[in-house]
Design goal:
Elements: E1 38-48, E2 60-64, E3 67-70, E4 74-80, E5 85-92, E6 96-104, E7 107-113, E8 119-126, E9 136-141, E10 144-149, E11 152-157, E12 161-165
Antiparallel strand pairs: 1-2, 1-8, 2-3, 3-4, 4-5, 5-6, 6-7, 7-8, 9-10, 10-11, 11-12
């Protein structure tokens, strides 16, 4: 895995403030948006069950058409029901999760529920060079899935996920 791009003076940029909560204008009754057809995203922070926004590791999510791969170790397909994006895990960690996405400037803010009923909020920042050479695709075999978006590649198999920047 690679480290996030450093911010000014070699520091990692500060995490953004938490967006409005469930009772604010971004609440669960407001329909979400589709995720972009292709993109490379770095997670900037996660809040679990309403807790503080924090980040303790690098997490990259790549989207190529309806296929995705997440460096945490799961990959598969996405679908949109008009409100939520559903991540159907086909390789790696089993399960399915769903989230509602909203734009906050260039960032995507995801609110969702895990299969165990716990909730999360994640902030996703676009990675540079997602359109660097126009290459975007998804490849899979019996026990692995690879997604490439520009210079970014995520490989997932039954044991783990890995991210590389070419």
């Amino acid at each position: 895995m690679t480290a996030p791009e450093p911010g000014p003076a070699g520091r990692r940029p500060d995490l953004p403030d938490l967006p409005d909560g469930p009772d604010g204008p971004d609440g669960p009754d407001v329909p979400g948006v589709r995720v972009p057809d292709h993109g490379a995203w770095l997670r900037r922070g996660i809040s679990r069950n309403g807790g503080p926004l924090a980040e303790d590791r690098e997490v990259v999510w790549l989207q190529a058409g309806s296929y995705y791969a997440d460096s945490r170790g799961f990959a598969g397909t996405t679908s949109f029901d008009g409100s939520q994006v559903h991540f159907h895990h086909l390789t790696g960690e089993p399960g399915e999760d769903a989230g509602t996405f909203r734009w906050d400037g260039a960032n995507l803010v995801e609110r969702g529920t895990n299969p165990d009923g716990s909730t999360f909020l994640e902030i996703w920042t676009p990675l540079p060079d997602a359109d660097a050479d126009g290459v975007c695709g998804s490849w899979s075999g019996q026990d692995h899935h690879v997604v490439r978006v520009g210079r970014h590649v995520v490989h997932v198999d039954s044991r783990a996920g890995a991210y590389w920047r070419l």
